[in-house]
Amino acid sequence: MANLALGLHGGCGTLDRSLMSEDDWAESRQHIAQALRAGWAVLKADGRAIDAVQATIMVLEDSPHFNAGYGAALTENFDHELDASIMDGATLDAGAVTSIKRVRNPIQAARAVLEGGKAVLLTGAAADQFAEQAGLTMVEPDYFTTQRRIEAVKSLKQRALTGTIAKASEAEKHGTVGAVARDSQGHLAAGTSTGGFNNKPLGRVGDSPIIGAGTYAKDGVCAVSCTGQGEIFIRRVAAYDVAARMIYGGQSLKQASDILVHETLASHGIGAGMIVLGAQGNPLAPYNTLGMYRGWIGTDGRMTVATHHDLYELGDA
Amino acid sequence: MANLALGLHGGCGTLDRSLMSEDDWAESRQHIAQALRAGWAVLKADGRAIDAVQATIMVLEDSPHFNAGYGAALTENFDHELDASIMDGATLDAGAVTSIKRVRNPIQAARAVLEGGKAVLLTGAAADQFAEQAGLTMVEPDYFTTQRRIEAVKSLKQRALTGTIAKASEAEKHGTVGAVARDSQGHLAAGTSTGGFNNKPLGRVGDSPIIGAGTYAKDGVCAVSCTGQGEIFIRRVAAYDVAARMIYGGQSLKQASDILVHETLASHGIGAGMIVLGAQGNPLAPYNTLGMYRGWIGTDGRMTVATHHDLYELGDA
């Protein structure tokens, strides 16, 4: 029996600590812990890795602290276009949605596409409709909107006018949630969900719903979920490149994921991070930014949560 | 200076020869030759590989014999949702569009996204709008519709009612166009364009617009464009897997592409094909179906066109 393990990221666009209120910071860590407990409960009950990934991501989607579901980034039109994907490492089955507007939990929509079996990727209003027919909880588009995101887009538009767009913080540019899990059968799974980035162009799709770019899982190799400027992850086929380096190049998970984050992706000058998990052992969470919301429950059943450099060991999950 | 080379596919959903009229068959071969000449003219004038790919694909998009642009497959709603992508192996720049409805040449829209520099992938009405603002030729959605596709969808719907859907031919299910090129500077490029498949579900996106799945190019390694059931190509990250086998596993282009088409993809029971091109040498066109529309101009400047098993050597391009 494989060692159970679960990991998540909440985006590598973490704010500078000095810009976060103590309350916001504490609550974001609580929500990370809550998400980990939701996924862990699935794994402890001999549930499937893919169900644990979904349960973990749903908690993050429901939290306003992360850029997915409720609290997601706003487009240039002040609305939301949400993307998500999920992959089962046991079968290489996958499901994904892009530019959906009405499904409360986009990761559920991705899962519904996977279970539907007729497509891997659905986009736009047809994807919302598919999710509705699959019985998922639908919401009005403004359900996802928080005051913080409205302020962020207003600020970005103002700075674009005054030519100071380059100063947009990582927190305004990036953010995504994702999870990886290994279950009692040794199966792996990965999933990712995002609102993109604040003030994003209409119709823009990043790496999060792209199997191989933002999400990848294959039993016996690894499970990967990415965060950062999605265009580069697509061009670098980043999530699958971690797996390919292991499969064909004999690299370790740590080597492969470190090279991607600190060399391949960093060479484009972008912020990047990943949560990754191997066939055995604990999750790894490389990132090249100021911080990355992240957490994991290792093979010893103990939980770790972090936002910046310091790790918070929270004991038994 | 590298050897110039150009290759294309027009989909691995070739009809059984006995079902093709002599005229249709001859004209489809003529259009393949015409597409090759368009791309070759770019390469001979010391043009860029990516421009040759685009020029080649535009001819195929304008031909009713292939499932892209004019003559593209129809969705279940009897309209068109077109996908395309293009990648520059020199820079790993890429552009792609999904579910567009009004751009005459979807590969131009993908190129415009690449040149725009703000996104790699745009979807839906926003992608059409982006293309229009980029000055591309726009058409009414019914421009793409041919009688042959209407009949095909009607027939598929009828057979679905009577439970004989399994008998849908490969030609009704698959079809896509793509090209790969190597220019006088040794740069590689690849592109793919498709209407999906007849009677496809609304919102469904296959591998053609997905960098790493349907299209991939990297200088010094290979250029790849795929055709076949896109869902499997996405799950197998097929186009990039060819490159990864070469980069990390030291496989030859022939080994890598043959394994993908005849083992990896075939193991899912699907029809699959690719046109691939290496850092040197002639294009290869592996496929596991009855036939694949294909053609290339090799390093000796001589043109070959084929639809089924037999190759037609057409002499100097």
Main beta sheet of chain A: strand number and arrangement?
9 strands, mixed
Distance between the termini of chain A: 20 Å
The run of helices and strands of chain A is: EHHEEHEHHHEEEEEHHHEEEE
Radius of gyration of chain A: 18 Å
**Helix/strand class of chain A:** alpha+beta
Identify low-pLDDT runs of chain A. none
User: What is the name of the CATH class of chain A?
Assistant: Alpha Beta
Oligomeric assembly: homodimer
Structural notes for this entry:
2 copies of one chain form a homodimer. Chain A has 317 residues and is of the alpha+beta class. The first copy, chain A, has a 9-stranded mixed sheet with strand order 4-3-2-6-5-1-11-12-13. A 3-stranded antiparallel sheet of chain A has the order 8-9-10. The relative contact order of chain A is 0.19. Chain A has 9 helices and 13 strands. Chain A has a single domain (5-307), classed as (Glycosyl)asparaginase (Glutamine Phosphoribosylpyrophosphate, subunit 1, domain 1, 4-Layer Sandwich), CATH 3.60.20.30. Chain A is globular, with a radius of gyration of 18 Å. Chain A is 33% helix and 22% strand. The model of chain A has no long low-confidence stretch (mean pLDDT 93). The interface between A and B is large, with 42 and 42 residues.
